[in-house]
## 1
Amino acid sequence: MPAEHETQTSPIGLLEELDEPGPLVGILVGSESDLEAMDPALAELRERGISHELKVLSAHRNPRGVAEYASTAQLRGVRVIIAGAGMAAALPGVVAAYSDLPVIGVPLRSSKSVGGGLDALLAIAQMPPGVPVACVSVDGSRNAAILAARILAQGGGYPQQPSLESNE
Ligand code: RP5
């Protein structure tokens, strides 16, 4: 059985994983130091029987890895991505830039945070128009998992109409 958590997956490793069917929910964190804060999300998804994976991929330290993951997740069958990060928390936004999947950002408080996680909250919530990220509360990973479950429960059927989308 594959480990639930892998550290710093390389782009080549990610390409190899393309052959394997992905889980419904992909969870990313920006650092090993973020892992504990995601435990409530893992517990919630486990309890609900929703398949998931957890990877450490930093938007700043491994941007190529994040791009590879985000741009291939949908092909692997992933339907929602939860991304948790602290400080200048670019991870959820970068994932949303590379994927059409719904992205739920979890602002995390770290020992280096400013304002108890306000830095990450603003970084995740203040996305530019056209690149949406849903944002839960600081350290709110359980809510991220519940929201992911609700998104999954909606099924498909809504036709995409890119021409109606505005980036202004
Ligand atoms: C962010 O910087 C991470 O998401 C983490 O919350 C914070 C600190 O990272 P480490 O220095 O502990 O790796 O990118």
## 2
Amino acid sequence: MHNIRSLRGIGDTRAKLFEQKGINTVEELLYFFPRNYEDRGFSKDIAHCRPGEELLVKAVVVSEVKETRIRKNMTLYSMTVGDDTGIMTVTWYNNRFVKKIFKKGDQYYFYGKINPNSRKKEMLTPVYERVGKEQFTGKIIPIYPLWGNLTQKFIQTVMSEALEVCGEFEEYLPKGVIKEYKLCDINYAIKNIHFPDTFKDFETARYRLVFEELFMLQLALLCKKETLKGVKREPFYNTECMDEFLALLPFEMTRSQKNVCMDILSDLKKDVPMNRLVQGDVGSGKTAVAAAAMYVAVKNGYQAAIMAPTEILAGQHYGSFCEFFKETDIKICLLTSSTKKKKELYDEIKQQKYDIIIGTHALIADSVEYANLGLVIADEQHRFGVTQRAKLMGKGNDVHTLVMTATPIPRTLALILYGDLDISVINELPPGRIPVKTYAVGEDMRKRIYLFLEKNLKEGMQCYVVCPLIEETQKSDLKNAVEIHEKMKKLFPDYNVGIIHGKMNPKEKEEIMMRFARGEIRILVSTTVIEVGVNVPNSNIMIIENAERFGLSQLHQLRGRVGRGKNQAFCIMFAHGSNEIIKKRMEIMCTSNDGFYVSEEDLKLRGPGDFFGTRQHGIPELKIANLFSDMQILKKAQSAAKKIIECNGYPGNIDTKLYEKIREMFREGIVSN
Ligand code: ADP
Ligand code: MG
């Protein structure tokens, strides 16, 4: 392993930037892949360049660089270049260095975009290299994601040096797999993913790396499943009691809620721990299903705990559970970081004075001990890390585990990605729900939207206004939650306007949320802290600012906050930018209320390495694979991994090199010790 500081140009400051991305060594750097490529392999004749095209030209400098100041802080530098077929202008903005560089008669490669708005031929801010000295033109060039103050050229240079420095990568994929799936050698793959000579070489390299990534993920998940298989536990004997619970509910469960309850019940009867994922769209009634499972656990003499990602949500669960169980003698408590007299509560939990424990991360604190934990549930599992879930499981002896998520993904994908879990789906909503009407609008509609809002407020309804994260708002074009809050206060002086954001402490958030739930606050301006779970049936309008900044699944989650009451609900998204993908996203939101469909489309529209997106789905970060377009490779990788486990047994005979690699890659704890 070589430290990245051994590369030229990387000192402490830049090393820190790379560390942000988890890159500490040269080897890790080489696993940071391009997001795109530019074909600078062939130069075009100037005569054949068309406006709007991005291309490479090989031309001779035929004029001096001319400097034109067009306004304060804006100076153009342009010169004329020519080849056998014609001449064109090349232009840079505020780049006085170019004056010193070019001399008449020198021949250069220029790569850039031909100005689409100019009648004369003009290439804008091209990359250039002297012919004969070319490094990044004359071939296919990788384009990397940029962050901090790093430039494209810097990363490209560093990568090519890294390739020289790092030496050989050791092959850790089994020989049989390489042969059967016709994978190229690891060193060939690494070189050609960064600097392919042809696009065919790139394809070959990419195929191998995508396969490798998905294969390792599969293997890790299967190993975990195998480990769990070996564990035995006492089954729950009393299983008749589920029906008692259903009778306690104020509503009849939907058919699919009942089916999921049956799946769970059959797990609980077994002598191995349950390990099940429940996927269900927002509002599909997962809480009642969780309550049913907990009821059974309690009736079998165990404690049951449910962990929610936010204090607000935990509080709301506490309310619902108290209501569900009010006719029973089941004791319920709430444990969050703002719980007072924690020590006393800990003692009572340890003495099994409580049967059901509801809370946040506070549930997994070291000082919390349970008397007899039989079932743990993680709600909105995509918000928890694997480690946190594991820690919750560790609080009991071989406990039954249920994880619930409202970001459903297509079943084929779920089967593969949650390879370590059994899966149940709630695929219908309780009767009588009116779908949320969704609109994507531009600034020109703002006045009308506010009039519409006012009308609803007059009728007694409430409204959410959601803004992108407050941390990200240094950029001036984003509507800052605080700013919007001020504006809404001015625009709607007759109504109480509140604000809630992630920078507030839990107590403050709780307070605001309570006041909104009680109807004291009529307009709630918020960042995405309201994304999960909270239920305020009287709110029927959600306005989303800068909707283009959110992922589709996230928008769908947000929208799920309204439409929980009897009135028609509306979701109005202010979206900016005319980018095709943004348009497509907005269209999907406006035409569908189905979470499965939305998340499938979401995955389609996302590229690889879209970290935020995959996290949203609770999937480990993928560096290169695209879960949608690489489905075929995913299937192959899955069968290869299955075969390895079946033929060798686990963990017994898995090749040590391979096993060590899985451990190293999934430090977060997919593989247990
Ligand atoms: P989610 O799946 O998003 O967690 P919840 O469990 O919060 O959804 O349920 C949303 C709302 O629907 C709650 O008010 C709940 O009481 C209600 N609900 C759940 N199941 C049913 C049902 N079968 N019939 C009627 N209402 C239901
Ligand atoms: Mg929920």
